[in-house]
Amino acid sequence: MIKIEGLHKSYPIGKDSLHVLKGIDLHIKEGEFVSIMGSSGSGKSTLLNIVGLLDVHDEGTYHLNGQLIKNMNEKKAAILRNKFLGFIFQSFNLISYKTAVENVALPLYYKGMARKERLQIALDYLEKVGLKDWANHLPNELSGGQKQRVAIARALVTKPKVVLADEPTGALDSTTTDSVMDLLKDINDEGMTVFVITHEEEVAEQTKRVVRLKDGLIISDEITAVGKAKAV
Amino acid sequence: MKFLFDSDTWQEIYGSIRKNKIRTAITIIGVLWGIFLLVVLLGAARGMENGFNKLFGNFATNSVFVWTQATDTPFKGFQEGRRFSLTMHDIEVLKSEYSDEIKLLAPRNQTSNLIVKDFKSGNFQVSGDYPVLDQIQKKQLLYGRFLNENDILSTAKVTVISEDMYKQLFDKGEIPIGQYVKINSINYKVIGVYKPSNTINFDGDCAYIPFTTFRKVYNTANKVDWMMITANEGTNIEQMESDILLTLKGLHKVHPEDERAFGSVNLGKEIGKVTGFITGMQFLTWFVGIATLIAGVFAIGNILLITVKERTKEIGIRRALGATPKSIRQQIILESVFLTTTAGMLGIIFGSLILFLIDSAASSNEDIPLINPTVNIPIILIAFATLIFLGTLIGLIPAHMATVVKPIEALREE
Ligand SMILES: Nc1ncnc2c1ncn2[C@@H]1O[C@H](COP(=O)(O)OP(=O)(O)OP(=O)(O)O)[C@@H](O)[C@H]1O
Ligand SMILES: [Mg+2]
Q1: Interface mutation target, options B5, B321, B414, chain A, most CBs of A under 10 Å
Q2: Cβ distance of A106 and B325 shorter than 8 Å
Q3: Contact residues on chain A for B327, CB-CB shorter than 8 A
């Protein structure tokens, strides 16, 4: 599903440039549930953004679903994002003047789906994350955990192949963290590839594979107990 | 184009417009003001033009008036300050020498007299005239007719009086035609009543009697007080005016350079000055209107730019969810066009409303020299189209800005 080889990424800072990713090799197959860990500034988000086509890499190759990602124009990238990828952000990134159900329906709008149909589907997904009764509330009327569940519903609504989550539980307490993780596990059980950044060992333990990053390099890549148990 | 008819597109625009109320208001006010000003200014200028046109309306605008004053230069043995009069001989000479240029020529003699009807009386102007006067300045007759050739030939003791004279001298409802009034103790039969022009009016309330009758009664012999001349079409009136004056100077032994001996007014020239003023005003109107419009459009662009910055994050989110640059651009441009169009329409509506109010105020008040303050619909449509065009163009800039940055940069914005 995701195949990365020799990936480099630098950010220009004034005249210098900051070398953030220094040759990443990573292969994630369909249906995997991968977490990335690493200290702050190690390049986790940078990697995820490149995988999510929100940013571009400098060197190396990246294949998404067998397609080489290189010099991609923004229109194609947008279509790929819409078709293959679902995003979950630490800060939720809901649109403040749209209700929960409208937020969830937005990716379907860009898919070109009719309003009635997409609102119905969005409602189904809200039900799935347990927020059907909150469908017509604006984001600022929801708690952090509820917002994140709306965001998850929005990431899932297009049935993406890969769900990318950058610290989805970073702003949540332990109970809501568990409910969000349960949702991600369900998604993965349905066959979606899930790729999640986290700082919390408890979160990483619930995934099937943990990749550890340090100073722009992968220092370890191992299957977790859960992963081993499932594999059996 | 399909997206234009998609209710979703409009739902999105409605959402973002509703969310950014202040921006929407400022934008709308900016453009509204521009269009409003254009409509009102153009309408007022047009109304003024109509007003002036009406002022000169029933007057042949190619008229020249000539009278005598006193010489300012000694000549051929005459001292300066000599007074003299125009004569019927002058009229004959001018008529034959300028037969190509002169269309109508009305010699006139005037005095003022007590006019009596039974026990009522009043002091009024009395004018000895030819029927041709009616062609130079059309008389609006309430009763009867104006002087005719027969009256002239027969030196008839007939008169055409003004509406006010009628009201002052006659009882209410009395039929004036065929009745007699005494002018300077001589009986004249009333043959017509006219309503004096409420625009340019040289005669005031004046009793017209045949020129020949005037000559006989007041013993003016060959003398002519002044004359009105209108030119044929295609004649250079200023040239004709100076030529005629030169001829007259020759006839009366006046120094050719004498500036004071003859007085003359060229109505065409005077009107030219006024219309020049109106043209200038219209130009100014256009200038002000267009400048305001452009300013309004730039205000929109500016505000859109600011909002795009404000909304960078939102745009980033939309792009992460699969919005193509095209769909983002379409939305921003459509917003801009929608705002300008709405504002423009409101401006036209309010402007027309103001013009309507001005119109009703002007028609109930004679002092306001505005008639029919209207604007050309094509002109407004063109202004409107320009506005929308500029609105689109200016919307393109922020739209472009919103799509050139990488989505992640947009998302990172706080
Ligand atoms: N747009 C940018 N311009 C310049 N430097 C950047 C940019 N984005 C990230 N960086 C730098 O790249 C490095 C890696 O950033 P990244 O966001 O990938 O870290 P991270 O592992 O996600 O950290 P955290 O756990 O704090 O989120 C950091 O040193 C950061 O300062
Ligand atoms: Mg990060």
Answers
A1: B321
A2: no
A3: 110
Please tell me which residue of chain A has the smallest CA distance to B328. Answer: A110
Rounded to a whole number of angstroms, the distance from the CA of A232 to the nearest CA of chain B is 36
Query: For residue B310, what is the enclosing H or E element?
Result: helix B267-310
Please tell me the distance in Å from A206's CA to the nearest CA on chain B: 27
B8 near A CB under 8 A: yes
Which structural domain, as residue segments, surrounds residue B288? Answer: 2-57+272-412
Q: How many domains does chain B have?
A: 3
In this prediction, residues A197-204 reach a mean pLDDT of: 92
- CA nearest to A118 within chain B: B8
Torsion over CA of B260, B262, B265 and B266, rounded to 10 degrees?
-110
Residue B65 lies in a domain: no
A72 touches chain B (CB under 8 A): no
Same domain, B89 and B115: no
For residue range B338-379, what is the model confidence (pLDDT) as tens digits?
888 888 888 888 888 888 888 887 777 666 666 777 777 887
Residue B90 shares a structural domain with residue B236? yes
pTM for the model: 0.67
ipTM for the assembly? 0.92
- pLDDT tens by residue, A111-129: 989 889 999 999 999 998 8
A54 → closest Cβ in B15, B314, B406: B406
- Residue B157 included in any domain: yes
User: Closest ligand to A41 CA?
Assistant: 1
**Would you state the structure tokens that stand for residue A19, as one six-digit string?**
């070398």
3-state secondary structure chain A: CEEEEEEEEEEEECCEEEEEEEEEEEEECCCCEEEEEECCCCCHHHHHHHHCCCCCCCEEEEEECCEECCCCCHHHHHHHHHHHEEEECCCCCCCCCCCHHHHHHHHHHHHCCCHHHHHHHHHHHHHHCCCHHHCCCCHHHCCHHHHHHHHHHHHHCCCCCEEEEECCCCCCCHHHHHHHHHHHHHHHHCCCEEEEECCCHHHHHHCCEEEEEECCEEEEEEECHHHHHHHC
Residue B205 within any structural domain of the chain:
yes
Q: What is the mean pLDDT of residues A38-54?
A: 93
| Nearest CA-CA distance, residue B385 and chain A, Å | 31
Residue of A18, A215, A217 to test ligand 1 pocket, by largest number of atoms within 8 Å of CB: A18
Verify that B117 and B207 share a domain, yes or no. yes
Of A78, A95, A107, the CB nearest to B314: A95
Check whether residue B131 and residue B245 sit in a common domain: no
Burial of B18 (0-12, 13-18, 19+ CB in 10 A): exposed
Nearest C-alpha in A relative to B407 = A54
The reply to whether A56 touches chain B by the CB within 8 Å rule is: yes
Of the candidates B11, B410, B57, the one whose C-alpha atom is nearest the C-alpha of residue B199 is: B57
Predicted confidence at residue B356, as pLDDT, reads: 85
Smallest Cβ–Cβ distance between A82 and the set B11, B16, B321 belongs to B321
Angle CA(B312)–CA(B313)–CA(B316) in degrees, nearest 5? 90
Q: Is B297 inside any structural domain? A: yes
